[in-house]
Amino acid sequence: MILSPSLLSADFSRLAEELQALEAAGVTWLHLDVMDGAYVPNITFGPPLIKALRPGSGLFFDVHLMVEDPSRYIRDFKNAGADMLVIHAEADRHPQRTLSAIREMGCKAGVALNPGTDLGAIRWLVNDMDMLLIMSVNPGFSGQAFIPATFDKIRAARRLLDACGRADVLIQVDGGVCPENTAQLVEAGADVLVSGSAFFGHKPYDARLAAFMKPLAG
Ligand code: DX5
Ligand code: ZN
């Protein structure tokens, strides 16, 4: 399992230090939540912030685009230093075209689905994606409660990807993830877990990372 801490819950007054502390603790991915105030009822940050963080970090930048019509911005995010761009299926009329464009730029491509969106939305996109992000809260804010129906959705997603010959597509889960549910999420088929509020604010980060990993050992 890969843990991808969400920058949204980091100390925004000391971001460079936060990223260094994550790397020193053994974290390899960073989840960057981009919100436009239109697709979701919140505004966060855009390419300039990612560009500023990029030179000082070796973390894999997993960029979650919660924006309307994300194709307008993929070039800017790639140039800023994104390693993976995840678009919402609900926010793009032509997701296949956008996913292809992301890959042509040399970026990994992912599709996110809101809790109420059926897996049918990605059935004909499976060959265009590297990761499926299953939202376990409605996007917009950190600190929300995990939606239990997510467990069945992860299992169904794993079956669908396996049946389509895409067992290699990563399944990421985002929202309300904490050490108490990591074992069940991984058992259901999750590969990458995002955590904001349950990760940051618990220093030192090496011990917190271990707390997320420990339930998987038993
Ligand atoms: C929600 C974001 C999440 C969020 C996770 O819209 O996409 O990445 O920051 O925060 P927690 O782990 O606190 O639910
Ligand atoms: Zn996210």
From TrEMBL:
Pathway the protein contributes to: Carbohydrate degradation
Enzyme Commission number, as recorded: 5.1.3.1
A GO molecular-function descriptor: D-ribulose-phosphate 3-epimerase activity
Family annotation (InterPro entries): Aldolase_TIM (IPR013785), Ribul_P_3_epim (IPR026019), Ribul_P_3_epim-like (IPR000056), RibuloseP-bd_barrel (IPR011060)
Top EC class of this enzyme: isomerase
Note on cofactor: Binds 1 divalent metal cation per subunit.
Catalytic-site annotation from UniProt: D33 (proton acceptor), D174 (proton donor)
Binding site for a divalent metal cation: H31, D33, H64, D174
Keywords: Carbohydrate metabolism, Cobalt, Isomerase, Manganese, Metal-binding, Zinc
Cofactor annotation: Zn(2+); Fe(2+); a divalent metal cation; Co(2+)
Organism superkingdom: Bacteria
Annotated residues for binding of substrate: S6, H64, G140, F141, S142, G143, D174, G175, G176, G196, S197
Keyword Transmembrane helix included in the entry's annotation: no
Pfam families, per the entry: Ribul_P_3_epim (PF00834)
Keyword Metal-binding among record annotations: yes
One Gene Ontology cellular component: cytoplasm
Reaction(s) catalysed by this chain's protein: D-ribulose 5-phosphate = D-xylulose 5-phosphate
Family designation: Belongs to the ribulose-phosphate 3-epimerase family.
Task of the protein: Catalyzes the reversible epimerization of D-ribulose 5-phosphate to D-xylulose 5-phosphate.
Protein name (Swiss-Prot/TrEMBL): Ribulose-phosphate 3-epimerase
Organism of provenance: Desulfovibrio intestinalis
Organismal lineage: Bacteria, Pseudomonadati, Thermodesulfobacteriota, Desulfovibrionia, Desulfovibrionales
Protein encoded by which gene: rpe
